[in-house]
Amino acid sequence: MILSYLSLPVVSPAPGPGHRSSSSSSSSTYIETKQCKTIKELQQIHSHTIKTGGIRDTLTVAEILHLYALSRFRDLRYARAVFYCMETPNCFSWNTIIRAFAESDDPTEALNLYCEMLQDEFVQPNRYTIPSVLKACAGVAGVREGRQVHCQVVKLGLVEDGFILSNLLRMYVISSVMDDALKLFNRNAGLDCLNDERRENNLVLWNVMVDGYIRKGNMDAARSLFDRMPQRSVVSWNTMIAGYAQNGFFKEAVAVFRDMQISNIQPNYLTLLSVLPAVSHLGALDLGKRLHAYAEKNRIMIDEVLGSALIHMYAKCGDVEEALRLFGGLPQKNVITWNAIIGGLAIHGKAIDALNFLFEMEKLGITPSDVTFVSILSACSHAGLVDEARSCFNNMVKVNGIRPRLEHYGCMVDLLGRSGFLEEAEKLVLEMPLEADDVIWKALLSACKVHGNIEIGKRVAERLMKLAPRDSGCYVLLSNLYASLGDWEAVSKVRLMMKEMNIRKNPGSSSIVINGVVHEFLVEDDLHPRADEIHSMLEEIASKLKWMAATLVDFYIDIVPVAVWVAYKEQSWIGSVLWIILLLCLGSITTCTYIIIQLFKLSPQQMQDPFYHILLRSHGRISNRKGNSFSSVVAARILFSLLGCLMLATLLYTLLTDGSPFRRELLTPWLTATLVDFYVNIVGIAVWIAYKEASWVSAFFWIVLLVCFGGITTCTYIVIQLFQLSSQEPLYDVLLSSSSRQVKTQHL
Questions:
Q1: Are residues 622 and 497 in the same domain?
Q2: Contact at 8 Å (CB) between 474 and 464?
Q3: Which residues partner with 510 through β-bridges?
Q4: Helix %, strand %, coil % for the chain, to 5?
Q5: pLDDT, tens only, 588-613
Q6: How far apart are CA 503 and CA 513, in angstroms?
Q7: Domain range spanning residue 410?
Q8: Of the listed ranges 100-114, 354-368, 387-401, 465-479, the one predicted with least confidence
Q9: Which pTM does this prediction carry?
Q10: Are residues 678 and 720 in the same domain?
Q11: Do 500 and 575 fall within a single domain?
Q12: From the UniProt record, which GO molecular function terms apply (predicted)?
C-alpha cells in the first residue's frame, strides 16, 4: 500500500463537499511525525497524510523526509521516493537528502543530487549544503569535484565562513592533497589572523591540519604544527595522542598525555580511549590503573568500548584477574567486549578458559566475529590444542560463515608447526586462497628450527627471502636452524650473505614507565641521559645480592652447631626435630627461646653456674656445684630475652612495612634483618667456644674470628676439633669435652 503511494507523484485529492482545511490537523500530524520511534510508525503516519491530503503541508513532509533520511531507523529508498514526490523541494529538503547520501555507503549519489540542485532555479546552495557536498567529495576521493565546490564557495561569498572553511580543509586532508590544504590553512589560520570572533574556528583549522599530517603518517610535521598552536583544546591533545598511538609511537603518546596533565587539561572519554592502547603496549600497569581510577572518580561512563579498552589493557599488562573482574562488572557487553576478554585469556595461555567464554558467548546469542576466532586460535596455539583449533577453524567457516583472513591462517600454521605437523602446515600455506605474508613463513621456519626439519626449512627460507629479501629475521632463523643441526659451514654462509647485503639484526629493547615517563633501553645502551646512574645502581644491586647470598649461607652454616647442641640436649628425637625446624625457619628467635627455656629448667643449685649446666646437662651429666650468686642467671635471662625480642621486632617490622624480601628495593632492610639474626646466633656459638678453649686468650681469638668471618670460622674450628679426636672417641666429644672445664671450675 505504502509503496504504491511512494512510487507515483503525489497529487492531493480534490476537496469533497463539506471538506474544510484545518491547520490544527496539520499541526497534530507534524507532532505525531516527530514522535515516531520506528520505521513502521513513520510509514503509517506517512500513509495517513497522503490519504488526508496532509502531504501538501510543507513542514510535515519535511519532517517525514528528515526521519526517512537521517533518523536511526533511516531508509534511503523511502527518503528518495518522498523527495522526488515533492512538487517544489526547498533548500532544507535538498540539504537533508544530500546529507543523507553523503553519510551513506554511496556518497556519489550525493554529488549527483547536488548537480540536480544546481539546475533548480528556485533554490540555491547555502552554508548547510556545502559541508555535506564536501564530505561526499572526500568519501569518493573526488579532488577535482572538491576543487569545483571550492570555486563555488568563493563565488557564493562563503569563503569567510569558518564552518565551511573547516570542511574544505578536511576535504583536502582526507583526499591527501596536503599542498592545497596547507595553502588554505596558511591563508586562513596564520598566527597573525587571530581575533576573538574567529578564535574557535581557527582552533578547528589547526586541529584538522594536525590530523591531516597524522593521516599521512608524517608525525614530525604534525608535532611541529601542534607545538606552534596558539591554543590547544582537549580535541587537540586527543588528536595528537591518538595519532602517536595509531602510528606505533607509544612512548610519545604517553609523553603527550603527561604534558596534557601538566597543562591542566582534563582528559575526557576520548582521551582515555586514545591513550589506553599505548599504555597496553608499554605494559604500564600503574598508569593504566590510574586512568581507570580517574574514569570512575570523574564519572566517565565505562561503556562497552571503554570497558573493552580497559580489559585489553589489564590483560596485556599481566593483571588478567582484574580484567576478569572488570568484565564481570560491565552492565552491558557486546562482541567487542567478549573479544577483549577472550584475547586477554589467549595472551596468558588460558586456552580452556577462552574456549569456555566462547561457548558462553554463543549461548547468550552473541555471534562471534573474525577477531573472536583469531583470539581463540591464538590461545589454542599457545596451549598446543590442535584438535580444538581445527574444530574452531572449521566451525568458523561452515557454521559462522566467516572467511578466514591471514591472521587465522597464521595461527593455524603456528599451531601445526609447534606441534610437529610441519607437512600439514606447509600444505595449508600453499593451498590457502590468500598469499602468505612474511609472518606466516617465519612461523613455519621457526617451527622447522624447533623440530630440526632442514628440508622444509630450506624451502620456506627460499620463499621468505624472495618475499622479504631485506628482513634480518629470515636469515637469523635460517642460521639458527643450521646451527641446531651442527652445520657450521652453512651458518657461516648465511652470516656472510647478511654481511654482503649489509643486513643487520634489529636489536631488542625494553621499556619501563616511571611517573608517566617512558624509559627505553637497548642492549649495551649508553644513550640514556642517566646511564651512569643506572649502571652504578645495577652494580650496587649486584653487590647487595652477593652479600645477601653470602650472609644467608653464613647464617645457615652457623645454625649447624646450634642444631647439634639442641639435638644433644633433647632426650627425644621428636623434640629435637621440632626445635631444629623452628631454628631453620626463625633463626635466632628460636636460639634465644631455647636458651631461656633451659635457664628456667635449672634448679636453685644449678642456677649458681647456669652456663656450665646448660652446656653439660644431658642424661644425668650434671655436677652439683656451689657457686657465687643468683645474679648471673637473671642477667642471662634478661640478655637472651632482649635479644629474642629485638630479632622478633625486626622481623615483624620488616614483614609489615616492606612485604616480600625478593623485591629489589627491599634488599637493604632484609639484609639488615639477616645480619642481626646472624650475630644473635653468634652469641650461642661464642659461649660454646669460650667453654671449649683452655685459655681465655685463645677463646677471645676465636670469637673475634667468628664475628669477622662467621661460618668460615665455625667450619674451621669444627674441623680442628675433629682432627683432635682418636678413633675410639665419640663424635659428641667435639662439642662437650674440654681440657679447660676443670680449670675454669676451680676459678669460679
A1: no
A2: yes
A3: 521
A4: 70, 0, 25
A5: 556 656 666 665 665 555 544 454 55
A6: 32
A7: 404-506
A8: 465-479
A9: 0.63
A10: yes
A11: no
A12: mRNA binding
